[in-house]
Design brief:
By secondary structure, the chain is an alpha/beta fold. The protein is built from 13 helices and ten strands. The strands form two sheets. Strands 4-1-3-2-5 form a five-stranded mixed β-sheet, with helices on both faces. Strands 7-6-8-9-10 form a five-stranded parallel β-sheet, with helices on both faces. Helix 5 runs antiparallel to helix 6. It is elongated. The protein starts with 17 loop residues before the first strand and ends with a helix. Mean pLDDT is 79; it is low at 1-15, 114-126 and 209-219. It binds flavin mononucleotide. Flavin mononucleotide is lined by residues 25, 39, 43, 46-47, 56, 63, 65, 67, 77, 80-81, 84, 86-87, 108.
Amino acid sequence: MLVQETREPQGEGESEWVACLTYKSIATATPRAQDIDALAERARARNRSLDVTGMLLFENGSFLQTLEGPPGAVAQLWSSIQRDQRHEHIEVLSEHMAASRLFSDWDLLLEGRFGDASATRARPAAAPPAVAEHVARLVELALNADDLALNTMMAGFAEQGWTSDAILTLLIEPAARALGDAWLDDQCSELDLTIALSMLQLAGHAVRYIPSAQSIRNSRYRVLLATAPGEKHMLGTTLLADQFLAGGWQVEMAFPESEEALTNQLNAQHPDAVDIGLSDAMPRQHALDQLRSTIAHSRQIVSEYPTVVSVGGRLFAEAAASALSVGADHARKSLAGISVRLAELVRQSRKG
Ligand SMILES: Cc1cc2nc3c(=O)[nH]c(=O)nc-3n(C[C@H](O)[C@H](O)[C@H](O)COP(=O)(O)O)c2cc1C
């Protein structure tokens, strides 16, 4: 069952996260090419009206579909699709929230092999050789789940001046389709495909929030990574340091025993952003009131100088608390991509 989420009001300028669902199923009867065409045509119209994008693969009696869009819309489609008698043995392969779409240009990209050769989809026009090579490399890295090399590759493109839209439309989306082809051609398993698509999602997520590598490097944003006053679990805060250092930020750490110790440090450092972390292991429900007051006091301290306030910990990862409920600008659900998300929030706060 797809979890319905209401969007939590977050910092100004933050992009809408999309729900992303991938499943496989078996056709109950062998469909003819025109049956699939008719299904896809109706599906496209409905997906467009719901702002849902995605792809549908059909091969040897099996469907594989990815849907991405507003959580409510994806949930609505999903309940129709699950009831559909044209397929059975439906199995969800992955279900997550993502910061960017893999198929932004496609209401429903249809790929398939049918008995009727006339209906075989023409492949999109070939990309220029240099771009095609990049796409092939992306596919290889995604299939090897080599996220480090993928991120380095993305950072390299951003540095060469590629815009994030160009990276998405010329590289990531074609790579996703090439992965679909690899699955159709039996060159990889469904599991490989699912993992590789998630890898691309992360890479897409990263570039989505990079205005340009240059502007981030020039700005050298500063972040204070702090545990909530008195919090003994520092795993998340410690891991965050790697993320921010890799993103080119100047990082200061704080493990304050009291609210006063934290606000003193904020007053001395005036960072561009502060992340305050509760335990990633234990739910700290009782700590929320204290955290709200710490954030309110921190904002008074730095009122002359806008500081983006981010919070994290198990309560936020599990959506048991939100940024809004403690007066923060952002609540991290995971450590991934956090430095680029906060860079964008800092950039937006400067515009205001
Ligand atoms: C494999 C498969 C994939 C489908 N994908 C979509 C889709 O992406 N969008 C869509 O509107 N309908 C899709 N459909 C059709 C829906 O199941 C459903 O028939 C249609 O949305 C009408 O919904 P309703 O029966 O609730 O009125 C798909 C059906 C199958 C068998």
